[in-house]
Specification:
The complex is a heterodimer of chains A (about 290) and B (about 350). Chain A has about 290 residues and is mainly alpha-helical. Chain A folds into 2 domains: about 40 residues, no CATH class; about 220 residues, MetI-like fold, CATH 1.10.3720.10. Chain A is built from 13 helices and 2 strands, in the order ααββααααααααααα. Chain A has a two-stranded antiparallel sheet. In chain A, α4 packs parallel to α8 and α8 crosses α10. By secondary structure, chain B is of the alpha+beta class. Helices cover about 25% and strands about 30% of the residues of chain B. The radius of gyration of chain B is 24 Å and the shape is elongated. Classes of the chains: A mainly alpha (about 290), B alpha+beta (about 350). At the A-B interface, α9 and α10 of A face β6 and α2 of B. The structure holds adenosine-5'-diphosphate and magnesium ion. Magnesium ion (MG) binds next to α1 of chain B. The site of adenosine-5'-diphosphate (ADP) has 11 residues of chain B, from α1.
């Protein structure tokens, strides 16, 4: 009997693959997508204005109306997306020269050291890193101490720029690594061909290297952008400018699940749009 | 560009040396001197690892020499970066830019040198016509066959009208048929544009058919420089005799027995006549008796390995004018007389550095 089964699988390799993947895929679709679906359903349920209780399957668009009628929601969405975009651009601007140095200039020994240096922060706890930044940024913190001789004081923990800085720090490795891998994939002979044809360093970078790094940059930006859009701890701990996540958190803490769920549509739709663009840029082939 | 019959030098290499890694490693290029004339089709021929590519890369400017100078049309360019040298390279792996179309690839050199768009378009068109790729402008390299990519690489280099074109085994990745077609085409193109071609190959047949002159490389040194006929007919060292064409190398006691004097000699297998033991030997001829040991049928030719009665072996090739493969193979074991004209016995220089191939 056992033999017959193994024989059958041998002749039907795709069935083998399906059987093997059924477990994990089933888990993802039921547990992960199922719970997401239930969460998003809340957005269309009404809430008893007197008891404050959610009334399941009592369909309404009240939550969306509430969000659209209040400009604060718009400001917060725009701020979150704007900071996420800024974090992505900054990370790309830092990652390009760093990855270029690692992939093309550094000796094998330095390259290994730098790779460790880039990945090491990923091993440290996310919260520990944020608290470290708090001690740096607070008014009488490390930064304030360092610039005090110039009559300046630390930025404190209210500036929105702090979120930009700390989020860039947190997600930078996710940009450096794909860009580094993308640079490694460009054969040296292409750079030599460019120089041979008269292209100086900058032209070679702009016309030969950069266009071939677009898939890698798009791949890295998926991480920096989506992780920034979804973050609510950094904006809470280093600044007082709320992100989408903070609003969702606050609303669910107050029991306004429909509003929280309705607002969740914003980052989800933005990310779907972003992923479609990234796919066109070839990001998924370079992950 | 007019082809001038001048004897002006395109390239002069003066004691060119390249060492990779630590000082104890053998030099990849060990102090070569070479003069290449303007308009010449010059080949660097040698086995893999003999330093041909390294030499070419130093001329292009990708590699800095450890010692020695490089002169391009009389100017010392040793310390110039590649983009300041009037040479272009056709890379072995073609090195086409994958994100650009064929036309953009070919136009790249003109674009970075700020040639105007309309002149650029004309010259790109002309270059694509020269390599017979009209109408392929919009394709990406990935959509081309190996032979077509090779042509794009050639057009991309030629369009800049460099004074010297460097080609590193440009046909290495093509199959035999295409290779032979491209050899003829390359030679024709070179005649048309009159640019000096420096052509790296490990294929002696290719070097002999295409070159005006060639240099035979071995272990980072040049063993011989000359026209194909000179190198083939008068190899100076046993390495050259063995590498360019095939040769029977004879030295020491065997040489005394066969040719009357000790020393190092070579004789080409096709210069030896295979006949009956009773055949007459002319006054200007040498001869020896033996027995056919092995027969290798090669289609147009047959190769015989003969064990000599005085000891040792010689290889002989004969054209298959009449014999069928059956007849050729039936000759195994037969007693034969080998005869050759004395003028075809090549005297080689003693070269203790170089092991016979
Ligand atoms: N970048 C390099 N680093 C170290 N050794 C090299 C390098 N390039 C070539 N070599 C060595 O130099 C020698 C000559 O190589 P090369 O010029 O490529 O020979 P060819 O083109 O004749 O096959 C070889 O022994 C090769 O291993
Ligand atoms: Mg080579």
């Amino acid at each position: 009997m056992m033999r017959r089964i193994t024989g059958w699988f041998n002749q039907h390799p795709r069935a083998t693959l399906r059987a093997l993947l059924a477990g994990p895929l089933g888990w993802i679709s039921i547990v992960y997508l199922g719970s997401l679906f239930i969460l998003l359903m809340h957005a269309f349920w009404s809430k008893d204005s007197f008891t404050g209780k959610v009334e399941p399957f009592n369909w309404t668009l009240d939550a969306f109306a509430q969000i659209l009628s209040n400009p604060v929601y718009f400001t917060i969405a725009a701020r979150t997306i704007g900071i996420a975009a800024l974090v992505t651009i900054t990370a790309a601007a830092i990652a390009l020269p760093v990855a270029y140095y690692m992939a093309r200039i550094a000796s094998p020994r330095k390259r290994a050291l730098l790779l460790v240096a880039v990945t090491m922060p990923l091993w440290a706890s996310y919260l520990v890193k944020i608290y470290a930044w708090r001690t740096i940024l607070q008014t009488n913190g490390l930064l304030g101490w360092a610039i005090s001789p110039f009559g300046l004081e630390g930025p404190g923990l209210t500036e929105i720029a702090n979120s930009w800085l700390v989020l860039t720090y947190l997600w930078l490795p996710y940009m450096i690594l794909p860009v580094y891998a993308g640079l490694e994939r460009i054969p040296n002979s292409l750079l030599e061909a460019s120089a041979d044809l008269g292209g100086r360093g900058w032209i070679t970078f702009r016309r030969v290297i950069f266009p071939q790094l677009i898939p890698a940059l798009a791949a890295g930006s998926i991480f920096t952008f989506s992780l920034s859009i979804g973050d609510y701890i950094v904006p809470d701990l280093v600044s007082d400018a709320k992100f989408i996540g903070n609003v969702i958190y606050d609303n669910s803490a107050l029991g306004s699940f429909p509003v929280a769920a309705a607002f969740s549509f914003v980052p989800i739709l933005v990310m779907i749009g972003y992923l479609l663009v990234a796919r066109r840029l070839g990001a998924f082939e370079s992950l | 560009m007019e082809r001038t019959a001048s004897t002006a030098l395109a390239i002069r290499l003066d004691g060119l040396t390249k060492k990779f890694g630590s000082g104890t490693d053998a030099a990849a290029v060990a102090g070569i001197d070479l003069e290449i004339r303007d308009g010449e089709f010059f080949s660097l021929l040698g086995p893999s690892g003999s330093g041909k590519t390294t030499t070419l890369r130093m001329i292009a400017g990708f590699e800095r020499p450890t010692a020695g100078r490089i002169y391009l049309h009389g100017d010392d360019v040793t310390d110039l970066p590649p983009f300041d040298r009037d040479v272009n390279t056709v890379f072995q792996d073609y090195a086409l830019f994958p994100h650009m179309s064929v036309a953009e690839n070919v136009g790249y050199g003109l674009e970075v040198r700020k040639v105007g768009a309309s002149e650029r378009a004309t010259r790109v068109k002309e270059a694509l016509r020269m390599v017979r790729l009209e109408g392929y402008d919009a394709r990406r390299p990935a959509q081309l066959s190996g032979g077509q990519r090779q042509r794009v690489a050639l057009a991309r280099a030629l369009v800049n009208r460099p004074r010297v074109l460097l080609l590193d085994e440009p046909l290495g990745a093509l199959d035999l048929k295409l290779r032979e077609e491209m050899q003829i085409e390359l030679k024709a193109i070179q005649g048309e544009v009159g640019i000096t071609f420096i052509y790296v190959t490990h294929d002696q047949q290719e070097a002999l058919t295409m070159s005006d002159r060639l240099a035979v490389f071995n272990r980072g040194r040049i063993e011989q420089i000359g026209t194909p006929a000179e190198v083939y007919e008068h190899p100076k060292t046993s390495f050259v005799a063995g590498f360019v064409g095939s040769s029977n190398l004879v030295a020491g006691e065997a040489a005394r027995a066969l040719f009357g004097t000790p020393g190092r000699f070579a004789i080409r297998p096709e210069k030896i006549r295979l006949g009956e033991p009773t055949d007459k030997v002319g006054a200007d001829e040498g001869s020896v008796l033996g027995r056919i040991k092995t027969v290798v049928y090669l289609g147009a030719d047959t190769r015989y390995i003969i064990s000599l009665d005085i000891g040792g072996e010689l290889t002989v090739t004969q054209q298959n004018l009449k014999e069928s493969s059956m007849e050729a193979h039936s000759a195994e074991g037969r007693a034969v007389r080998l005869t050759w004209r004395r003028v075809h016995v090549l005297t080689l220089a003693e070269d203790p550095q170089v092991a016979p191939a």
